[in-house]
User: Fold these one by one.
Assistant:
Number 1:
Amino acid sequence: MGSLRSPIALTTGEPAGIGPDLAVQMDSATLAGTAVVLIGNRKLLEERAHRLGRSFAPPPYVPGSAPADGLSLLDLPLAAVVRPGHLEPANAPYVLETIDRGIAGCLSGEFRALVTGPVHKAHLKNAGLPFEGHTEYLGRKTGSPEPVMMFVTPSLRVALVTTHVALRDVPRLVDAGRLDSTLVTVARALRERYGIPDPEIGVLGLNPHAGEGGLFGDEEERIIRPVLEAHRLQGLKVSGPWPADTALTPHTAANPDAWISLYHDQTLPVIKYAFFETAVNVTLGLPFLRTSVDHGTALELAGSGKAQVHSLRCALDHAIRHAPLH
């Protein structure tokens, strides 16, 4: 049966990692009414499925045709043989090719959302490719100057002002312009994608105890409070700056519709401790919806049968629920 909706693209990630394991664990029977196009290498996925004792025979994806519900495969060539757990520099361009094909399809309307499998950022960078992370790469490739990484869990949402940067660079990067842009992007997404007409947003402080009145730093008073006050005057329900060590406790975490965190490890350890395999990485500020798993390539688990597919299912479910129906 052909689908009346554009399919969702799903990249299979780093070939030596668990991305292929997760892809072959996707079950077409659980995708009732949804067409999903895997973007990867058929031989690699068939070999990984055989290693895991699973059957894997999705039909080829034919661009321009009405996609069948369930899985189909857009086959892309690899440069070298893949050994599970062993990174191969020759295959690094293939990883970006899978992402680029998904981006192109989303921009043209061929796909209605992009779900990405895990990649190895350092490996791509060491291979000489321009990649710091999916968020930054997607922003650059789509001409979106300030994409926002947001983690969505069963009970809270946390967006980041800075992402994959050294901790020593964070104070310089947390400026009024970047914080303002993040607030605008998050508020728009809460209204338009998540159906919250009058969202409430909490913003964390940069320093311990949110600076404690300037005792531990002045960024809260000098940068953060003026931005928040400007948005309050425009009608946005925004609170803060909150001390990061108490904001995500059980008594306060679910109060706002979203939290804004100033740097990567300020809140992600909490998210991954409490919601590992149920959190979904969502990129805001793009022309299309992109979601991803909340974990890495786990090279040591590739081909072992121990990789759990739940995080990828959550990322795909989120895309199915929130992507436009075109």
Note: The longest helix spans residues 92-108.
Number 2:
Amino acid sequence: MKLSTARLQFRELTEDDAPFMHRLMNSPGWLQFIGNRNIATHDDAAAYLRTVYIPHYARHGFGFYLASSVADDEPLGICGLIKREGLDHVDIGFAFLPEHCGKGYATEGAAAIMTFARNLGLSTLVAITTPDNAASIAVLQKIGFTQQKTIELNGEVLLLHTQ
């Protein structure tokens, strides 16, 4: 997968990204809006990558990608596609470290991932958010998603957005 924008470049995640993922998955925004995945150590993050994210590429032909700065290769966040149990269509998602939020990276990254999804032949995408995640809802609206309904997924009440 070769994908980049003016400011971001994307690549598949590897176990070497465990320190970054440990930090991201324990950031306040991740814990509040995505949920605690019990990633207490770099080894936990490596195991999560190995068992959850990395197999997704072979299984589905896509997944979550590390979004790093074109300027200096600094990891900023993740953007990508996931096929979740309980959803009829592929889900687009994104998360960035707190110091990189509010700079347009999520919108830029999500728009690039949407183009990537279309090139894969995915005509319908969905996104899920918690009802109080105003920032992610705003990003989704900017890239053409509209809120459709409230759903329950894995015991959590979420908003379903479609594009």
Note: The two ends are 23 Å apart (CA to CA).
Number 3:
Amino acid sequence: MDCPDCGASLKVPERSVEAPAPVVDKATSQSKTRLTDSEDGVRSSAKSIFRAKRKAQTEAESSGKEFDSSQFDQDKLPRKVVLALLFVLVLVIGVYSVYVMQPVKRLEFTDEQANALLQGMNTKDDSSVTALMDAYLNAQCTCTEMMAEILRYIDSEEKLEEVLGDLKRLSQIAMIKNPLVDAIDRNSPNMEMYSLMEEYQGRQTGAHGKMQDEVLRIQGIDATMVDRLKDEVRAISELQMFQG
């Protein structure tokens, strides 16, 4: 036969060589099949939308109405989702703003609470070292936490005057020394007591940190209020910010 490109004569072999059957990768074949099915699904969905849109347009034109194609736009769903997320975000910000703007309620320090704290500070429960330490340190930490909460209420001289007595009382309770507690050897190899000390040390550190944050906030409002707190409430004067 002649070559269709150059015109040269070419000899065709008398025996044809059968090519081996192609090796098909089953996984690749299945993947391509799934991909094809997915593409067919997309095309089918697009065609369905197109047919529905065309039908609605024809019905609108036949009845003399204006055709609205917005309901068939495929980008409507993402837009609606974005608008919904924006609405939720605005709602959350609004709720949080209302919460932040609400005035802090005064923590009422009652005689019953004071008596319970005094019992803890003056505990004589010598059934075990840990029981004694637990009662004492729990009362001490509670006093500090309550002082931090009361300080949150102060944003004026009037409010300071309202709660100054409670702060003084809590400070006095927190400073009580317990002879039984002072006699405990805190360096003794008692793992249970060591764990207890670690727990209350973290709790007390956190409470002191909150107290200091509130004192700094009050200082930003009126420094003279902080001077008065430092002079009249011993627990506040011993905060780290006033040391050195």
Note: The longest helix spans residues 26-62.
